[in-house]
Amino acid sequence: MSSDQHFVIVGGGLAAAKLAEALRANDFPGTVTLVGKEEWLPYERPPLSKEHLAGKKQLPEFTVEPRQWYRDHHIEVQVGTTVEGLDRAAKTISLPDGSTISYDKLALATGSTPRTLSIPGADAPNVYTLRTIEDSDTLVELFGSAAQRIVIIGAGWIGMEVASAARNAGVEVTIVETAKHPLLGALGPEMGDVFADLHRAHGVDLRLGAQVTEITTKEGIGTALATGVKLGDGTVVEAQAVLVAVGASPNIGLAADAGLAVDGGVLVDEHLRTSDPDIVAVGDIAEQQHPVLGRRIRVEHWANALNQPAVAAATMLGKNASYDRLPYFFTDQYDLGMEYTGYAAPGEYDRVVTRGDVAGREFVAFWLDADNRVLAGMNVNVWDVTDRIKELILAGEPVDPDRLADTSIPL
Length: 411
Description:
Elements: E1 6-10, H1 14-25, E2 31-35, H2 46-49, H3 59-62, H4 67-72, E3 75-78, E4 85-87, E5 92-94, E6 100-102, E7 105-108, E8 112-114, E9 127-128, H5 133-146, E10 149-153, H6 157-168, E11 172-177, H7 184-201, E12 205-208, E13 212-219, E14 224-231, E15 236-238, E16 241-244, E17 248-250, H8 253-257, E18 266-268, E19 279-281, E20 286-290, E21 295-297, H9 302-316, E22 328-333, E23 336-342, E24 351-357, E25 362-368, E26 374-380, H10 386-395, H11 401-405
Parallel strand pairs: 1-2, 1-7, 2-3, 7-19, 9-16, 10-11, 10-16, 11-12, 18-20
Antiparallel strand pairs: 4-5, 5-6, 8-17, 13-14, 14-15, 20-21, 22-23, 23-26, 24-25, 25-26
């Protein structure tokens, strides 16, 4: 590998930093440049809705590497810089000042952007989303002083985790969700109801099967401030702030404009290589042909951003590596900690089997297909079982549901 080569990473999150780490760990001797949109060095995002929002961690504690590490490893970092174009023929990326950066290999780790709502009042200044450290800081300040009540639109992971932090801070919370169950797309109705019960037990006003038609406003100093939300049945829920947590869209515009193959994300093979052999994609944007699951999946979770870069770096270096890890994610809400391993798409599993105390929120749940094969598992306040869950999934063999539910029989 020539020391004259230049590898460029576009992105400023965990995946970008881990890719830079992996290239140097593999003794890449060339130049590495990391270009990130945010003003900060790459940091991890889970604390934004968890420990940071709860006041337990500050940005330096979840910044991936300090500035000195980049200096010591000769990584050129350009923060606060948006890549505006990608010319695959010339093998350059273009920056806002009109300059370009040439690359021999390119990694795209451009992440996601929160979805917004096209309804009246959605542009009020006290209508928030959560994606960046600034967003999280704003909510911390809000919970500490200004807000007695917040309405959260959306009962996905961000909405539910923010609700937990807000309730722990003494803020009154109403969650409005169009689906009949929270976390429906991730967990299905059976386990979604566990989280519905959890939040209601902690005083959240959880309104399911409800549609927000308007964010109500009143004139403030120079602008209209949100005062709550209006629902489809005409009900008005008052609040001092509104959080829109209706999912995120992968930032695939740069790739699409450059003619890379895209669908819901940037299409990559098991090696995380895009339709251009000199470009890889990782993290939220990577829609991967998964060698174990035998299908394309795109997973917007921390574990992908943490683990995919090692494979992508190997691919950039001409080595043969595949990303075959099962999807994994976790959440912490109130006194509930959970890990989920595997992949059970809505409508693609036959039943959910539980072992343990579901009402006491100390159990393991398994998603089974019609042949009683384990597709995914979720441990709730039960620890050190993730490896056993993985083994059951990877075995691909039918299990006896009754034995699986029996806590006297080891997994």
